[in-house]
Structure formats: C-alpha cells, structure tokens
Design a protein that fits this description.
The complex is a heterodimer of chains A (429) and B (305). Chain A is of the alpha/beta class. Chain A is built from 13 helices and 19 strands. Chain A folds into 2 domains: 105 residues, Urease, subunit C, domain 1, CATH 2.30.40.10; 261 residues, Alpha-Beta Barrel (TIM Barrel), CATH 3.20.20. In chain A, strands 1, 2, 3, 4, 5, 16, 17, 18 and 19 form a 9-stranded mixed beta sheet that branches. Chain B has 305 residues and is α/β, with parallel strands linked by helices. Chain B contains 11 helices and 9 strands. In chain B, the strands form 2 sheets. A 5-stranded parallel beta sheet of chain B has the order 7-6-5-8-9. Chain B has a 4-stranded parallel beta sheet with strand order 2-1-3-4, sandwiched between helices. In chain B, helix 1 crosses helix 5. Chain B is globular and about 55 Å long. The chains are: A alpha/beta (429), B alpha/beta (305). At the A-B interface, helix 5 of A face helix 4 of B.
C-alpha cells in the first residue's frame, strides 16, 4: 500500500481545525498532520478542500440479500464511496430480514469482500420485522450488530418495544425507530397539507411521527436505552428531541438529505422520484431540520438511500414504492442548503454517526488512526450526471449542488480519486 | 392545448372556447343524423384502468359522432392481469395507431405519466380523487345553458369533497367562469387543507340551502373510504341529503346537479331526482357534447371537413 501526502487543505481533526495543512498517510494510517510537512509518497494538492474523517451513513438500504435487482452490496458500496463515505450501516429490511446472526454475518462478509467501505449490519427489533416477537437480538449482538430497527415500520406494540429496550439497555445497544404511526398514516401517500388536499391523495400528518416519538421517549425514560430517531421530518419532532436532550435522555436524531432539500410542493406533478416515507413536508419543517443540524439537536445526516429499479418507480404515484437514493449527493445537499461550518459539517456527516454506530476506526482524523478520509471541496460542483447505484431513483440527478467529493480514502487507499471510482479507473492502490 | 389533464389553471378563454364548441356539437347531436366527419381517420383510445360505464360510453359516443374510430381498453380482460405495466400497456396501444388517449386510473397523476410516456394528446378521464376535467366542462355547460352564464352564480357542492375528483375539477371551472362556490360537508369529508381552493366551506347544508342557485350533490363514495368517515348513512342523509323537504325549501329557480351514479335515498330523494329541476340527464347529454369539443380541439379537427 503506497504512502501519500494530501497537501494544502483545511484539515478537520479531532483536536480542531488546521488550516493550509497536510495529512501524511503511511501504512494505511494517518502518520502526520501539520503545515509544510515533508511529503511521503505521492504529493496531492488539495487546496480549497476540506479534509475530514470519511463520511458515515447510519441509514443505508443495500437490498442484499433478496432484492439485488435494486442494489447489492457491491453497487451500494460504490455509490457510498463516490459520496465520500467510508462506512455505512445496512438496514435490515432485506429478504430475508436481518433478524438472526447468520444473516448479519452474511452482510459483514459481503461488505468485506467488496472492500470499498465498512459495511456494518443493523438488525431487526422483531422477527421478520413483523412486530410480533423479538428478533434474535442475542445472535445479532454476537455478530457485531449494535443498532436495532424495524425500519420501514414502527414497532407498534409498546409492550414488545419495551422488552427490546430493556434487553438492549443492558448491552448499551441502540434502538432506532422509524417513527410513523401506522393507523394515523393509513393509506398515506404524501404529507397531509395543501398539496395533498389539491391532489386528492391521503396524507400522512406530522402527528404520525410526533406520536411515536412521544410514546418512545416515555419508554426511554423507563428503560434508559440509547434511542435514535430515524429520518426526522417534522418541526414538532425536532422540538421534542431538543426537549429530550435537555432532560438528559440518551437520544439522537437523524435528518435525511431529501427532507433538508425538498418540500411537498415538489410532489405537485406527482413524479414518483419525490415519493418516500416519511414524506416531504413544509418549508417550516425544512427550516427546523436545518436549524437542528446547525445547533446539534439533530446529530447525524442519514441518507435513507433506498434504491428501486426503473420498472418499479416508472408508474403513477400510488403504484410506485416509497424511497429515493442519496448516498452520492448527501454531503453536497447538506453543504448547499444547511451551510455548516467545517467542524459541524464533519460532526454530522462523520464523527457523530460513527459514535452512534460504535465504530472505532471511523469518524476521527488523528495521528495513528486508520486512514478513513474524505477530501471534500465545498465550492466545487457535485457530479449529478450519473449514479453508481444500480438504481437511478434520485431526485438530485441533473440538479445543481455545491460540494464535490474529490477523493475518498478507505483504510489508507483511494476508493475515489479525482471524483472517479478508483476501482473503475483501474487505479486501485 | 395539447392535453386536457386538469381544470386547475385553465383560463376562462379556454373554457369558453370549449363550451362554445360544445354548444355547436350539442346541436349536431340533435340532428336527424347526429354525426359529422370532423375526425374521420383519427383513432381515439379509451384506456379505462378503473371500472366506468358512463364516462367510457360518453367518450366513445363522442368519438363516433365525430367519425373517429375507437380502441377500447378494459382492465377486466386485459394484459394487466398478466402483470403488464401501465407504461407497456399504453405504449402497446399507441403502437396500434392511437392518435389520442383518454385515461382513467385509480392513481393520482396517471394521465400525466401517460402523456410523458406516449407523447400523444391525453384526456384525463379521472385520476384517483384528483381531477376529472370533462366532468367540470359538462357541469359548466349545463349551468351555462340553464342560467346563460355562471357569472355571479352561487353554487354549493355537497358531500364527499375529500375523495371527489369531480369537486376538485368543478371548483376551479366554476370559479374561473365567475361563480361563487361553497363546499358543504362534515369535517371528515372536507379536505384537510383548503388553501388554494377558490371556495368557502360550511358544515351545514341547511345554512346555505336558501342562498344558492345550484346545488351539486356528490355520491358518497364507499369505495374510496367514504363509508367509514361518518357514523351512519341515516345520519348523513339527515344532515346532507337532498330530501324532498329540503328541496321544497330551495328558491324556486334553484337547480340540482349530480355527476351520477345517484344513490337514491342517501344523497338524493327519489322525488328530487325525478323533478325537472334536477338536471342529471341534461348533464349526461352535455357530457357527450363537451367530450366532442375536447376531442375535436385536441385532434385539430376541422368543422368544414
């Protein structure tokens, strides 16, 4: 593995910002950080860019096993690397659902074989995500799973959820909830409001999210478990998380790129590329989510990258599945619409998600750490002309976004070099 | 005008032009030989992915009265049952030589998608609970024939507004043509947000009964969830039905419209349905006339042909 030196960038380290600085990578680790260092190996000018810990996504649908026509661990890993990611947490709504140890180990093994990002499985809370009995939490834990979720559905049964929380509190695992009350959201196709009323579609009111958060916070007080709200979409939800944090509960929250960028007006022409759950909401919700990321009420950006094939999405709205892709443009979206300072940017994109997923090799840029890095040019133009995902259900393709991933470095080697996947360019180190 | 997909945003001149042409075709329909050669050689495909009787028949009657050929698609006997997608189905029918498609579908925006996929002129024959623009045209024509103009008319639309593509179409057409619209329904049948609707709302039919020039009754749509949103049909009839007693309290020149099919005994009593001031059958006749006008304009027909 060749050594190399990244030069002349704003380096965002665990200790603070280092302007006009270099990062020396040797033997797969960060060897030195500082100004005017003597280069080792190839010297790569990164002037104008930020260098920080590689991005970590705690909410990725890789679709393998079972739905490889949408995505697999190889194509999803490529899309992740292109987006500046060095680690992703795979959601467990695969087929079969990741509700037992061998299924989690399969995801780990496939991720390691592809070797473009750390692929860390999450596990189901309930068996087959059916909401009826606990999944094999013991086996999943033994296989390295620390985040548990029935993502795609809320765990509706409060008694069952309480047992999962009690079990995981003992191990200090994370309960991550898809917060949408099934009854209040029944038949829901989009945000309930002005646009749904004109389109005649059944809406999903904000209260469907807020109710589940409120109930779950009550159980967090009871059990003391680490609790994570996935894809927060409402201003009311942001306020509840802020209050829970002020109270001292061990709560984290996530915002997706699409809930930061688009509001429900984009649904007006019923193009299913804007269809996802929770739905796109109102400008006041977007403002609250953006502000939540700035103030730290929202801890992480999670993509909810949800690939679907053209033959599944190319239908009228109600006949098309929920979900959009986003790994490749999440950083650019955040940079374009939230405009975070570099330290906070890498907190929500890298270090906070790494901490949430209990990853030790990710989310920190310091001497001696494994070299999981991204070189991100905040003024560059994002490449929205192509996708490396197997699916193209992205609302960002063709859109102008500010922020370009120049290089992604995974365990000391380039997975992305000059904006192109190193593997595809035949230049893998 | 390349397509007719919605009434939202259609301007007054466009509406007037369609209604003027419909008046002419209404006259054609009452000739001894009710047929003109305006669209000879054109093929109109009626793609009804949701069951329909009257709208499909009406479009086919309109096409034939203009001497167009028709291709008729019904979901019950079709390739959809074999798993073919909507997109492949409409592209297949286009490949057979359709010049225009009339699309009805249970999903919102289906006609938009068909217009994108086929690049043919598309008429929305009803998409989900969203739009049904030719219904608004035939309702407007019926009101214009009766009153001369919609300017200044006060119209109440009563019933399941929330699940009604008819209401979503009528409210824009009536407003653009100068009428004042009041939506009358229980809270569970009104849309959750009325921003953007050029109408006012009321929860009491009795409050508006004596003030309106026309009452537009909607069918209670059990298949769209309408039946689970009020406690009983009897209560609905009691509060929102056009009973004989309510009919007698209307101003003597107030008329009653209904898009059909009527459910006698729920939203309308038999005596009202059969009264000459109930314009349901005129609406049906006008449906053919306005659909002739729409097909004629979208297919660029010539009245001299």
């Amino acid at each position: 593995m060749p050594d190399f030196t990244l030069q002349n960038a704003l380096v965002v380290t665990a200790a603070g910002l280092a302007d006009n600085s270099d990062v020396v990578v040797a033997d797969g680790e960060i060897a030195e950080i500082g100004q005017g260092l003597e280069a080792r190996g190839e010297a790569i000018d990164c002037a104008g860019s930020w260098i920080g810990p590689g991005f970590v996504d705690v909410h990725t649908h890789l679709r393998e096993p079972g739905q490889e026509w949408k995505e697999d661990i190889a194509t999803g890993s490529r899309a992740a690397a292109a987006g500046g990611y060095t680690a992703v947490v795979a959601m467990p709504n695969t087929e079969p659902a990741t509700d037992a140890g061998h299924l989690a180990r399969y995801v780990v093994d496939r991720g390691a074989a592809v070797d473009l990002v750390d692929v860390v499985p999450s596990g189901c809370i309930t068996a087959n995500r059916a909401g009826e009995k606990l999944a094999h939490l013991d086996e999943l834990w033994a296989a390295g799973v620390t985040i548990f979720t029935d993502d795609g559905d809320s765990v509706a049964d409060a008694g069952l959820l309480r047992r999962a929380m009690e079990y995981l509190a003992e191990r200090d695992g994370v309960v991550a909830q898809h917060c949408i009350d099934a009854g209040l959201a029944a038949g829901g196709q989009m945000h309930e409001g002005e646009v749904s009323s004109l389109l005649g579609m059944t809406g999903v009111p904000r209260q469907a999210e807020e109710m589940v958060i409120a109930r779950d916070l009550s159980l967090v007080r009871l059990t003391g478990v680490r609790y994570h709200v996935q894809h927060l979409s409402t201003a009311g939800g942001v306020a509840m998380i802020a209050a829970a944090k002020a109270e001292g509960l061990r709560v984290t929250a996530e915002a997706t790129p699409h809930h930061l960028y688009f509001d429900h007006s984009f649904v007006a022409d019923t193009n299913p590329v804007y269809k996802m759950m929770p739905p796109l909401r109102e400008p006041s919700d977007l403002d609250a989510l953006r502000e939540g990321l700035r103030t730290g009420v929202i801890d992480v950006v999670g993509t909810d990258h949800a690939p679907h094939a053209d033959h599944e999405k190319d239908h009228p709205w109600e006949d098309s599945p929920f979900g959009v892709t986003g790994l490749e443009w999440a950083a650019a979206v955040v940079n374009t619409v939230v405009k975070l300072e570099p330290a906070q940017f890498f907190s929500v994109m890298s270090s906070n998600p790494a901490a949430l997923a209990d990853m030790t090799d990710q989310g920190r840029l310091e001497v001696g750490a494994s070299a999981n890095l991204v070189v991100f040019d905040p003024t560059g133009e994002a490449n929205t002309t192509r996708t490396l995902s197997r699916s193209s259900n992205s609302p960002y393709l063709g859109r102008e976004l500010r922020g370009a991933v120049r290089h992604t470095i995974y365990r000391g080697r380039f997975t992305v070099r000059d904006g192109e996947l190193a593997e595809l360019a035949g230049a893998m180190g | 005008m390349k397509h007719l997909l919605t009434m939202e945003g259609v301007d007054r001149a466009t509406l007037a032009s369609l209604l003027d042409d419909a008046d002419e075709f209404y006259e054609v329909m009452h000739r001894p030989i009710p047929k003109v050669p305006a669209l000879r050689g054109k093929t109109v495909a009626t793609m009804f992915f949701e069951p329909s009787t009257r709208t499909k028949l009406s479009f086919e009657r309109a096409a034939k009265a203009l001497s167009a050929d028709t291709l008729s698609f019904s979901p019950g006997t079709s390739s959809l049952k074999k798993g073919e997608s909507l997109k492949d189905t409409v592209l297949t029918v286009k490949a057979m030589g359709a010049d225009l498609m009339v699309v009805r579908h249970t999903s919102t925006g289906a006609a938009w998608r068909v217009a994108e996929w086929t690049d043919l002129p598309v008429v929305n024959g009803g998409d989900g609970a969203h739009q049904h623009p030719t219904q608004a045209l035939l309702d407007s024509l019926t009101l214009r024939q009766h009153f001369g103009s919609l300017d200044g008319l006060r119209i109440a639309i009563v019933g399941d507004i929330r699940h009604s593509r008819v209401a979503r179409s009528d409210v824009f057409a009536f407003n653009t043509l100068g009428a004042e619209v009041t939506l009358v329904a229980p809270p569970t049948l009104l849309p959750p947000d009325l921003t953007g609707w050029p109408a006012t709302a009321s929860n009491s039919l009795d409050d508006v009964l004596t003030e309106v020039d026309a009452i537009y009754l909607l069918r209670v749509q059990a298949e769209r969830g309408g039946a689970s949103v009020f406690p009983s049909v009897a209560e609905y009839r009691e509060r929102f039905g056009m009973t004989d007693a309510r009919f007698n309290r209307l101003k003597p020149d107030t008329i009653v419209l209904h898009p059909g099919p009527m459910i006698r005994g729920i939203e309308i009593d038999g005596g009202v349905a059969d009264d000459p001031r109930c314009k349901v059958l005129e609406q049906v006749t006008n449906g053919v006339a306005v659909r002739m006008a729409v097909l004629f304009q979208l297919l660029g027909g010539s009245k001299d042909a």
